[in-house]
């Protein structure tokens, strides 16, 4: 039976409510190859029961209530100041949520370290580092956590990854939290990862304070995860076992939006394709007929994909750029490279569109007589599966709406992609967005957004979402019934490290990693 058939059956089997935590703990062994063949064979030969109805990410809508409430906001610029209160539209202060006294403990702790977190955020913002080069951020964040009594593991599986762990009491569940650190080429922290870094720290410290004051046993693991921007750092850490003991994992991400708002939207699955055309040079005026023009092949492929867009769904995205070396107007290019991103709302849809995009590249090679090599150097990114138990009314959404602001785009689809999507396939996870004030046309990955990520307003928003997120995480540790519901929702939405492994391998295989097609002679090795 083919790998595709196995994957489809695994999707059905995973919907039967198996224990996600146990599978996530076995994930590193499965990915390493242990027991993978046995489990895959069993899945392919078993006729599963009909799957549970998968939760629609667009079906659950929460209308914000237009009232006012308190909003913790550290005034001032870079210095710590007493928290201020002011009314916020779209908030209902009368909504009930889990253990308000615990939220008060969390909020007091995060407010107490707010000034230090502000300084830490600005330090990271002023020292932007690209993927897998986050040495400064690694050092300042681990120093911060170590000074507060956390057990810190530096260079955790990857050179710039790290883990900080806190344990209280005997037994209990394990909560994971993520801090991102990397910046973008040329435009610095234009995706606000300085805010994500300190938000993860705030969540972890808030949960720790509540565990100590209210004597709640359990374990918190804060992961510093490198290379979200194009390096799939979390996917690598997932394969290496960094997430295997977690019962749930949390993080948040800034974006432009209404003041004091948040979102619980999904993200698109993504695969990167590197395309290289090889031709033959000739003088462009004297003997052009002797050449095979690699740039023509690339331009033709670009045009082919423009035509393809008419026949793909509006929720899909295919976009790319040209790259070349030593081009001159009077020399027909013998090389041309392209970098393409393909995105779709789900892994299954991504699997369907990848071969169609590949056909555009191969057709151009055939038309121009060039060779084409199609590869993918990074892990595919999976669509983001928000855990609906972690995000529903009595968890994150209700806490945030009752204290800080409206929830927008609940369980809808966003156009971006993240390596945290891979984590959401392996264990229960939540990834809310939070809005920060920006200039017009100042969305993510712009210089204006980089400036906005350093403002006091952005810092206040990061602390607000951290308080709500910390209470959700604390409830995973404290409320056994809630933890069971979280696991159940995750299993219904498909959470399996084996599935993650197989789907990732299939996508890389679909992309033709390492394969070469010759325009005149068919396929060749390479």
Automatic annotation (TrEMBL):
Domain Peptidase M20 dimerisation: 274-364
Source superkingdom: Eukaryota
SUPFAM superfamilies, per the entry: Bacterial exopeptidase dimerisation domain, Zn-dependent exopeptidases
InterPro entries assigned to the protein according to its UniProt record, in alphabetical order: Amidohydrolase (IPR017439), Bact_exopeptidase_dim_dom (IPR036264), Peptidase_M20 (IPR002933), Peptidase_M20/M20A_hydrolases (IPR052030), Peptidase_M20_dimer (IPR011650)
GO molecular function, one term: dipeptidase activity
PANTHER family assigned to the protein according to its UniProt record, in alphabetical order: PEPTIDASE M20 (PTHR30575), XAA-ARG DIPEPTIDASE (PTHR30575:SF0)
Sequence similarity: Belongs to the peptidase M20A family.
Identification of the protein by name: Peptidase M20 dimerisation domain-containing protein
Upper classification of the organism: Eukaryota, Fungi, Dikarya, Basidiomycota, Agaricomycotina
């Amino acid at each position: 039976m083919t790998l595709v058939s196995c994957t489809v059956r695994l999707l059905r089997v995973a919907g039967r409510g198996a224990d996600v935590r146990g599978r996530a703990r076995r994930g590193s062994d499965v990915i390493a190859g242990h027991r993978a063949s046995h489990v895959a064979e069993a899945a392919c030969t078993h006729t599963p029961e009909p799957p549970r109805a998968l939760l629609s990410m667009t079906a659950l809508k929460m209308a914000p209530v237009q009232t006012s409430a308190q909003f913790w906001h550290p005034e001032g610029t870079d210095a710590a100041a007493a928290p201020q209160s002011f009314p916020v539209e779209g908030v209902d202060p009368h909504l009930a949520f889990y253990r308000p006294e615990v939220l008060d403990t969390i909020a007091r702790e995060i407010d107490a370290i707010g000034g230090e977190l502000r300084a830490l955020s600005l330090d990271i913002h002023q020292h932007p580092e690209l993927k897998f080069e986050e040495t400064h951020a690694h050092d300042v964040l681990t120093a911060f956590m170590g000074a507060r009594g956390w057990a810190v593991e530096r260079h955790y599986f990857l050179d710039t990854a790290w883990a900080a762990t806190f344990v209280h009491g005997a037994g209990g569940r394990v909560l994971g939290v993520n801090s991102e650190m990397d910046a973008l080429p040329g435009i610095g922290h234009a995706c606000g990862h300085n805010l994500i870094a300190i938000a993860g720290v705030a969540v972890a410290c808030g949960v720790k304070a509540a565990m100590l004051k209210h004597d709640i046993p359990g374990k918190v693991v804060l992961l510093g995860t490198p290379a979200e921007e194009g390096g799939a750092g979390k996917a690598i850490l997932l394969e290496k076992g960094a997430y295997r003991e977690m019962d749930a994992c949390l993080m948040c991400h800034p974006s432009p939006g209404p003041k004091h708002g948040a979102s619980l939207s999904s993200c698109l699955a993504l695969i990167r394709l590197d395309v290289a055309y090889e031709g033959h040079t000739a003088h462009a005026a004297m003997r052009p007929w002797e050449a095979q023009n690699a740039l023509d092949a690339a331009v033709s492929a670009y045009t082919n994909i423009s035509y393809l867009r008419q026949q793909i769904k509006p929720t899909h995205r295919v976009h790319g750029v040209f790259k070349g070396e030593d081009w001159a107007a009077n020399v027909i290019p013998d090389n041309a490279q392209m970098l393409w991103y393909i995105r779709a709302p789900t892994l299954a849809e991504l699997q369907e569109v990848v071969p169609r995009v590949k056909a555009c590249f191969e057709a151009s090679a055939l038309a121009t007589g060039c060779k084409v090599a199609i590869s993918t150097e990074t892990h595919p990114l999976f669509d983001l599966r928000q855990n609906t138990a972690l995000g529903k009314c009595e968890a994150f959404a209700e806490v945030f709406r009752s204290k800080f602001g409206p929830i927008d785009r609940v369980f809808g689809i966003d156009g971006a992609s993240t390596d945290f999507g891979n984590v959401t396939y392996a264990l229960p996870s939540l990834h809310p967005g939070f809005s920060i004030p920006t200039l017009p046309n100042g969305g993510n990955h712009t210089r204006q957004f980089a400036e906005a990520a350093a403002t006091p307003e952005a810092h206040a928003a990061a602390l607000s979402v951290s308080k709500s997120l910390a209470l959700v995480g604390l409830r995973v540790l404290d409320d056994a019934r809630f933890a069971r519901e979280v696991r159940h929702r995750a299993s219904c939405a498909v959470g399996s490290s084996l599935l993650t492994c197989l789907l990732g391998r299939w996508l890389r295989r679909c992309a033709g990693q390492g394969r070469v097609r010759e325009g005149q002679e068919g396929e060749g090795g390479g």
